[in-house]
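Assess this one:

_____
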Amino acid sequence: MLARLFRPREFTGRHMWAVMILFFGTIISVNLVLAYFANSSWSGLVVQNSYVASQHFDTETAAKRRQAALGWTVRTSYQDGVFTVSLVDGMGRAIRDASVEATIGHPASEREDRTIVLQADSGGTYAAPTELGAGLWEAAIVVTGTGEQPWEKAVRFVVE
């Protein structure tokens, strides 16, 4: 019985045709799947024109240094459908009477990006309702109306 299974057989043109179809079919299938995912996910584009962006590099770097010198810190949380931001200055005091806006989205996709305006409460925290699914999220927080230049911070957080 085993001898019959393992006896030498002739390798015909049909066998070669099947091997070629399977080999190239596998390669083409994998390429199509990878091309689909590359096309449907985040493009990786951060700026539209890198040359124009480079002309503003020194100005933006100086603004970031001024922002860092303020010593502000931000804490974020997301519970029960409410995104909350707490802002504290370099002296440990809550930052009140500011306008806070956050653009929230997945770090690797722009499909679910949304911009929300957070409302202040009496304790120096800012909150807004928004529905976020489970996973890694990134919030680009912009604080204005404090007498300073707009203060910006990107924060990543996980929703479970």
Summary: The helical segments are 2-5, 13-40, 50-55, 57-70. The beta strands are 73-79, 82-88, 99-105, 114-120, 125-129, 135-144, 151-159. The domain at 72-159 is CATH 2.60.40.10 (Immunoglobulin-like). The two ends are 58 Å apart (CA to CA).
